[in-house]
């Protein structure tokens, strides 16, 4: 079983455990801020389920209907996660308003606060795993899930501090204000997740660092060619698509030009695992005398 899929499945189990702990903390304290924190965890579980389906679908090999693979499915899951985060923020704002209008006392409960703190620790540890696996395997769905959990941890710590202040000061309005701040933080996270996912769906180019690496590899391993130009890149989940024009001497044989292309493709593939490289070979008179000079 693919590591990404195992981690995605694990997120569902972790999410359900944390959800139960946070609702228990709310039940023991009656804090609307802790309730808002629990609501956000519902989104964590839903996003984890979406990530499982996305990772499963994205791992399917290319077929006749999807010759470039299914990797972009993860971006759709990430967008869905972002939308669910926004919906969670709306629910939190509603809970904060109702808590303000119908102010109720917050009960000091060491077990309740401890339960929420432990849930935050579990989330933090799992977020680190999600981000590490997501980045190493270039999985947008797992990275989005991990970033959401990081926000959840920060939210939980802030809420715990705030609920402690409510208990100490007796200012119950702080409970609703804390819930509203949680909502704003969740809303911002949702926007960031959606923004990054849309960039992937719009075939955003690889980072400048990655493009610089590709240019260096072409220059280093293109011995026999004259230049390369019109380099284009795009990212689709784990895959980096690279295409460019390679200018070779007019008298060069097809076999020799093909060998040069193979060398470049292997070098780029080693630096960017899973990269798809397309090279258009052109004769000398097509040179633009700009772009990538072959060493």
From TrEMBL:
Source domain of life: Bacteria
Compartments where located: Membrane
Domain named Cation efflux protein transmembrane: residues: 12-202
Ribosomal protein keyword on record: no
Keywords assigned: Membrane, Transmembrane, Transmembrane helix, Transport
Keyword flag Membrane: yes
Spans through the membrane: 7-29, 41-59, 75-100, 106-129, 149-171
Pfam families xrefs: Cation_efflux (PF01545), ZT_dimer (PF16916)
Lipid bilayer topology: Multi-pass membrane protein
Assigned protein family: Belongs to the cation diffusion facilitator (CDF) transporter (TC 2.A.4) family.
Name assigned to this protein: Cation transporter
InterPro entries (alphabetical): Cation_efflux, Cation_efflux_CTD, Cation_efflux_CTD_sf, Cation_efflux_TM, Cation_efflux_TMD_sf, CDF_Transporter
Cation efflux protein cytoplasmic domain mapped to chain residues: 207-284
């Amino acid at each position: 079983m693919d590591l990404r899929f195992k981690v995605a499945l694990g997120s569902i189990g972790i999410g359900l455990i944390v959800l139960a702990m946070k609702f228990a903390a709310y039940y023991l304290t009656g804090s609307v801020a802790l309730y808002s924190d629990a609501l956000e965890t519902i989104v964590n579980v839903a996003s984890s389920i979406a990530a499982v389906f996305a990772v499963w679908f994205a791992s399917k090999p290319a077929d006749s209907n999807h010759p470039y693979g299914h990797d972009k499915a993860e971006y759709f899951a990430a967008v869905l996660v972002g939308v669910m985060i926004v919906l969670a923020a709306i629910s939190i704002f509603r809970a904060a308003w109702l808590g303000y209008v119908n102010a109720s006392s917050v009960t000091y409960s060491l077990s309740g606060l401890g339960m929420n703190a432990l849930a935050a620790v579990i989330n933090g540890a799992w977020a680190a795993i999600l981000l590490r696996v997501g980045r190493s395997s270039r999985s947008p769905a797992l990275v989005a899930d991990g970033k959401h959990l990081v926000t959840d941890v920060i939210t939980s710590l802030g809420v715990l501090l705030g609920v402690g202040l409510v208990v100490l000061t007796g200012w119950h309005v702080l409970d609703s204000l804390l819930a509203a701040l949680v909502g704003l933080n969740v809303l911002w996270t949702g926007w960031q997740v959606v923004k990054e996912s849309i960039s992937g769906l719009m075939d955003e180019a690889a980072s400048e660092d990655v493009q610089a690496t590709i240019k260096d590899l072409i220059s280093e391993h293109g011995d026999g060619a004259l230049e390369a130009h019109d380099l284009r890149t795009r990212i689709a989940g784990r895959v980096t698509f690279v295409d460019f024009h390679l200018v070779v001497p007019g008298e060069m044989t097809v076999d020799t030009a093909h060998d040069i292309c193979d060398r470049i493709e292997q070098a780029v593939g080693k630096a960017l695992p899973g990269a798809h490289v397309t090279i258009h070979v052109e004769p000398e008179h097509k040179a633009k005398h700009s772009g990538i000079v072959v060493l």
